[in-house]
Amino acid sequence: MPTIAVKGSDIQWQCADDDTIMRSALRAGLGFPYECNVGSCGNCRFDLLDGDIEELRADAPGLSARDRERGRRLGCQARPLSDCTVKLRFMPQYESRFPPVRQSAVLSAVRDITHDIREFRFTLDRPVRFLAGQYALLDLPGVAGSRAYSMANTDNDAGEWHFQIRRVPNGAATGKLFDALSVGDRIGVDGPYGMAYFREEAGRDIICLAGGSGLSPMVSVTRAAAASPRFAGRSIDFVYGGRRARDICGEDMLAALPRFGTHIRYHPVVSADDEEGWSGHRGFVHEVAERLFCDRLRDCEIYFAGPPLMGQAIQKMLVDRGVPPAQVHFDQFY
């Protein structure tokens, strides 16, 4: 089992032969910076000073040619083949409240949400706690590489993790999930991960912005907030966007929560100009959010999840509106 040492410090930890440098650090309680966990964002870059590694994703977009020339590698894609010496700066905010655990899980139930979003319910072999809004890595039989999906439910003693996943055209992972996986089948699960979790202590009203399978973590955050005694009396606005009316979902899940319609409000949005018979909001999620909440955005705790372009547009809008970064929570996925 390789030992990873941080130059200039007394910090070192062991990494299992089949684990990555970043994930093993998180399991050891260390604050290794990260975000997407699949090699795309680049937030887990570190300097490899000594030792040998295998890069699980050699063409990972989170690492530039210049990074490679300077000896930088991605923590989430680096599997050590020997003891290694690295250079990086740990940050306490990345320390996991519930360290991620690798194990297997059995598919216990499925249900369709829309024409291309389905909920998959898995039961872990060993219950592991998680924070509302976090995600896990799923390892699917016959599919190369892990896939990150957010949980839609909240922490529970039964070890059930529910994922609301949108089918990706020609996607290897969602093809396996939608077309080949049956109730009773087993997969590998690694989690929890993620920084866009519900901040129960924040004491502000909440705005959740979602599109596509970004529904899943936003439903989790809303469910946790609705059940929190510390959140009593505050409001939640949930904006969900899709291209057409058939893409819109989530209202039934929120309607099952206490105070729906008074303190919990749902705002559906379609972006197609030619959607006939639609009486809800039209446009893009960031545009509708800005129209609905205006200056109130600065006084709220804001969570968002969805397609990359939607996320970028929301980020720009919030910056332009002067929303403090500490009140904005999201995990980058690509």
Describe this structure in words.
Helix 6 runs parallel beside helix 7. By secondary structure, the protein is α/β, with parallel strands linked by helices. It folds into three domains: 3-94, Beta-grasp domain (Ubiquitin-like (UB roll), Roll), CATH 3.10.20; 101-193, Translation factors (Elongation Factor Tu (Ef-tu), domain 3), CATH 2.40.30; 206-329, 3-Layer(aba) Sandwich (Rossmann fold). The two termini are 32 Å apart. The relative contact order is 0.12. The protein has a six-stranded antiparallel beta sheet. A six-stranded parallel beta sheet has the order 17-16-15-14-18-19, sandwiched between helices. The protein is built from seven helices and 19 strands.
Main attributes of the structure:
single chain, globular, Elongation Factor Tu (Ef-tu), domain 3, 7 helices, 334 residues, six-stranded parallel sheet, alpha/beta, 3 domains, Ubiquitin-like (UB roll), Rossmann fold
How are the secondary structure elements laid out?
Elements: E1 3-6, E2 12-14, H1 21-27, E3 45-50, E4 53-55, H2 65-69, E5 72-74, E6 78-80, E7 84-87, E8 101-112, E9 117-124, E10 135-139, E11 147-150, E12 160-166, H3 172-179, E13 186-193, E14 206-211, H4 215-227, E15 236-242, H5 251-255, E16 264-270, E17 281-282, H6 285-293, E18 301-305, H7 308-320, E19 328-329
Parallel strand pairs: 1-7, 14-15, 14-18, 15-16, 16-17, 18-19
Antiparallel strand pairs: 1-2, 3-5, 3-7, 4-6, 8-9, 8-13, 9-12, 10-11, 10-13
Helix pairs in contact: 6-7
